[in-house]
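Narrative of activities, Objective 1.

The group set out to show that a structural description can be obtained from nothing but a protein's sequence at a throughput compatible with the screening campaign. Below is one input-output pair from the validation batch, recorded exactly as produced.
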Amino acid sequence: MTKRKKTDIVPLMLRLRESLRKQLQDAARVKDVSLNSEIVERLEESFTRASIQDEFDKYRVSIQSELRKLSDRLGGEIRRRDPLLMQMAEQWLNLAAQQADKEKAASMSRLLRMAMEQSSQTRPDQEPELPMPQEPELPMPRPRGRQAK
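Output recorded for this entry:
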């Protein structure tokens, strides 16, 4: 038996349900390609998709690792200064890690640095100033009943 090259095209006997063959045939007809071309394209696409998913998973793990390192570095200082702020920071970092979102992690990092700077500027016995939440302006209710002419 001779060894095949990677570029060789080889015949393959394939068994599949009639309903699947019909779906493939219909898809091939819509694209105006052969059934063989449709099957080959779908198989190649599945391997490409799997490869992309593997790369994404590696990237996600790397981001989560970096977020944990950042959390550990900043955590000790923030935990010492403000336990409530630390809880908020951990929640943000966990959310960013779950979503594998570098932008959120960077944003949280900036917020933590600002909080640490503000905390270091206040005396230990002084509460840091927190911004007051803004209430949305509500329209004034109109009086009901008869209106003057």
